[in-house]
Write a structure and sequence with these properties.
The complex is a heterodimer. In chain A, 33% of the residues lie in helices and 25% in strands. By secondary structure, chain A is an alpha/beta fold. Chain A starts with 7 loop residues before the first strand and ends with a helix. The two termini of chain B are 36 Å apart. The chains are: A alpha/beta, B mainly alpha.
Chain lengths: 503, 332
Amino acid sequence: MAMRPPRLSARAVRKSFQATCAVDGVDLDLHAGEILALVGANGAGKSTLVKILCGAIAADDGQIAIDGRVVAFRAVADALAAGIAVAHQQVAIIPCLDGAENIMLGREPRRFGLIDQAALRRKAQALADRVGVAIDLARECGTLSLGETKILDILKAVAHDPAVLILDEPTASLSLAESRRLFTFLDELKARGLAILFISHHLNEVFAHCDRVAVLKDGRKVFDGSVAAATPADVVRLMVGRAIEDTKRESDGAAGDGDLALSLRGARVGRLAIPALDIRRGEIVGIAGVLGAGQTELLERLAGVPHGASAASVRLPGLARLPHSVAEAIAVGVYLVADNRIRKALFPGLDVQENLASGALGVLSRHLFMQPGAEAGAARDVIARLGIKCHGPRQDVMTLSGGNQQKVAFGRWLLRMARDLQAPPPLLLLDNPTEGVDVGAKAEIYALIHDFARKGAAVLVASAEFAELLALCDRVHCIAHHQLGAARPCAGLTEDRLLLEVA
Amino acid sequence: MSTSDTEVPQALADAEGARVANFLACYGTVLAAVAIFIAFSLASNRFVSAANLGNILVQISVLMVVSSGLTVAVASGEFDLSVGEVAGLSGVLAAGMMVWAKLPVALAILAPVACGTAIGLVNGFLVTRLRIPSLIATLAMGPIALGANYAYDGGDSIYATFPESFYYIATGRLFGIIPVPIVIALVVVAVFYVLLNRTRIGRAIVATGANIQAARLSGIAVDRCRVLALALSAFGAAMGGIMLTARLGTGQPGAGEPYLLDSLTAVFLGMTAFKPGRATVQGTLVGVVIIGMLDNGLNLLGAPFYLQNEVRGVVMIAAVSLAVLRGEIRFF
């Protein structure tokens, strides 16, 4: 028994992207009938490792073996044929097909060249019965709950009869009850001898349901052992693995004494409940939550995007309700730097100057006409002040580096504040402000945010990187169980603590 | 360029390489237009004559007006597939109003333009309020406009003599030399150029076309931009239709139809020039000139009539595939 090779074994796997080593010599063994959790902070190399294991990208170095046999993948199809199936975080279920059709998608049994509906249903049902799934496979998938869809998506992966099943954050969008049901299903798969690699941010799940846990940090495996041999606190320490750098915000005493820039009571945005949220001028308040916890919707709603929301009481400068439109929010000085700059903040194909001016068209125009001189001057000022590296204001914004693109996303509001003399003191809403930005640019953006606050801006920042919140904020709220917790001063808080709170 | 370049030499060298590639991306289409010009000049000695060049400009004036309007729609991120039928409808309306209703020329021009613009507003309503993709909404509006056209004239052409002043649109000469249709076309091009490049609403339209979500989050009234862009597109088409009627001397219900493919081709060709990936009025102008030269040159060379159709299709495919391969345009 102990002589049997692991179902999946990776040795010294390495992968670099340009200068950064995303996965740096990782060994991983996965045995039949076990669930191995793979955890790590954002950017630790989890997704790169998963992509290598499932054949989506090629490793620079190292080898992968299945049942002791060395394999080489050129494409996802190779990995699938070798017995590695993946259920990605985004479900690949087609809503207008029913469960059976989805499970057998692309491998429909055929008779005389046409799909054999009876055989298709028989096969799908047999698979569902074997692993104890009681979902009605004749129902159109669009009518199923999120949890049921997720189970079908995993079943679809299982239909390939894999040796190894990789689950990328399967519970990310599920409610607690749905997660429980998913784990019952996973236990059944495990009992049938499947080797499961489970990627999750939720440590309590990991410790409740997995057999072993492997911790990645900066591309290296820093721990691999039974869940009985560690505690969630140990794992968090390993994930963070360093003393928090001393970028911490110096509270100069003034923060928190300013006027209220925003006050929310008894509010709800989508699924997120917000009992109380207050931000004063000169203060930086953070929201800690795993991705998709509802922080993006909250920030967007405050910025005037019409997400469904309600509030018992709202106080914004000059407004006693949530803004009806983005234009109204901007008029009262509420500016959003959105989370996905390519999708939501930048104008591909337009140049740096046009991008910078995009938030201030009214300010930069007179009698319906743009003022080319004013626009160019304002853009030059912002480029110089933020140190945006570009050949000139006329360079296409998409050819800039990620950090410089992010500075442009900030710069749009900076330009408006600098040029609009009637502008009210700003409330800045920052959603993952350093997403995909290198370390150097990160420090510059932190300095920029601190500078905003020093000059009297109120700042609300949501981030999935908790070290960032600790470096930036005076106080921080945690999102847990679809609720925004009470604010706590950052002094004395640690990244570990925050991770445990939101897990 | 700017004299305040303070970058290190290496960066300058990199920038130089990028600049050469950039130049080709921006001016390749213009170079192609020049190449076509030279090729036809060599192939036919009649091509470069002043009379023929003037002729080309007159021939493309209608297309220039229609395409300029369509450019605004495409810049806002929307298609307008109703331009051909709107041009046809407005041309027939103008003829009918002069011949049947005996309306004064000015009114017979203004009313069809207003009517065409109204169709554009309806397109805008369908796209922004009913959330029908513009590709579908304007595709459906085409036959509706054509049906209205047939209903008005019974499906027949309107043959009659128009008031003398109406022909001035097609055959008049400003200061006795410059053909009026060219003047009209240049004025329309200039107005749309200024609109897109110099006005606040124009910038908002371009931003909406570049990234509607980012535009919305910037406080830009994106729906207003899209409605206006579609209205301007129909406005251009209606103007073009009237110029066409003046040139043909009759109101022909089907006269506008070919302008859909031609104007789309011109806009797509234009998207490969100057500011790659963007619909610009100056780019579209280059596209229109290329189409005009191809038509005229092939005619002069005595090419069979069907070759013009083949060439149109091939040019359209070449322009779009170039732009898509270079990642400058993305569809859906």
